[in-house]
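Hi everyone, sorry if this is the wrong subforum. Our group has a chain we'd like a structural model of before ordering constructs, and none of us has done structure prediction before. Sequence below.
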Amino acid sequence: MSTVIKVGMADLKTAKSPDSLTTLGLGSCIGIALWDPVTKIGGLAHIMLPDSTKIKNNTNIAKFADTGIEELVRQMIAEGASKARLVAKIAGGAKMFEVSGTTSVGNIGEKNAVASKDKLKQLGIRLLAEDTGLNYGRTVELNCENGDYLIKAVGKPIKTI
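Answer:
Right subforum, don't worry. Here is the predicted structure as tokens:
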């Protein structure tokens, strides 16, 4: 019997096969799925912002791409995953609001996607697939048994990356 473990906004969790991890309503946020194909340990982080260094008195490391991905890797290794085997898939990073002018609010989704990819590269974790950008929200689910990352969006077919 498998369990679907919910990951909230600015949250991260790990799970082991046959369980899966899900996070709802990714708009400009990014859902970063990490998976070790040998131990079948998975991790999912719901990242809201790209860079923790821009915020003072930040206590939630899961909220940011830079600190959230590092913490997810740390927790997965503690569970028995190997950093060398980890692979990543990301989804989200939508441009949810049309903002006139050049405010940074308008494209936070793209910034989140870029920051996530940069951090993965820095940690030497291969990005296998992504479903980012455009203008709609996504709900994602990581299957820890096979590494499938299901992307669900209103009015769109379910996509597996």
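For your construct planning: The mean pLDDT is 93. The chain has two helices and ten strands.
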